[in-house]
Amino acid sequence: MQRYGQPAILCLHKQSCSFLPDSTKSGDGSHLPDYLQRKDLNDNPIESPPQFFVGAGANPNADPIEPELIKCAKKVQAGAQFFQTQVVFDLDIAKNFLKETNRYNVPVLIGIFPLRSYGVAEYFDKNVPGVKVPEELLEALKKAKKTPDKKERKQKYNEINLNYFANFIKELKKTTSAAGCHVMSVGYESIIPSLAEMVK
To answer: What is the tens place of the pLDDT at every residue in 48-103?
Structure first.
């Protein structure tokens, strides 16, 4: 992805590798200073460092939120120029996170994940730490699952997702400082054009 012709890079992990014994766990932001120091992995100076628009991950679902905000502050201090968040289904959680991160004066992209089936929604609700699917959305998808005709069931899933996430995005646009949303539509890319049309 690019911003005004400037390559953007999203820093999420620094996995431990055999040739990088000092690498650290994901999410702590400790990898960002390496770029600012303009040195390569062997501690040699980089004479003409690349110009990146550097982003970092963030988790609005963290509870309590304070430790996550401390991490965000460290990432901004280390050079993060935007945040891209994990999946958020709850509008109030997204709004609160955006309110709290206004102090950092960096763009925030809220992560959304259209749910192509009730099974996917149930998995998120039960197995992804900190992520809760709102009850009304879960119930609507559960009801749609009972539709016997496969084509009609898919159409109902589409309608539920489009209505929910279009309203979600419109509310963010109207009432918050969100720079935008990034859509994680794994196996459900077909919904993106309709969703984009509804919120433009």
So the answer is: 766 788 899 999 999 999 999 999 999 999 889 999 999 999 999 999 999 999 99
Q: Please tell me the distance from the alpha carbon of residue 13 to that of residue 178, in angstroms, as a whole number.
A: 24
Q: In whole angstroms, how far apart are CA 12 and each of 56, 74, 83, 136, 166?
A: 6, 14, 10, 32, 27
pTM above 0.90, yes or no: no
Alpha carbon dihedral 51, 75, 13, 17, in 10-degree steps, equals 90
Spell out the domain ranges in the chain: 2-199
Is 2-199 a domain of CATH 3.20.20.220?
yes
Please give the distance of CA 111 from its chain centroid, rounded to a whole number.
3
Given a contact cutoff of 8 angstroms between Cβ atoms, the answer to whether 145 and 122 are in contact is no
The answer to whether the CB of 116 falls within 8 A of the CB of 157 is: yes
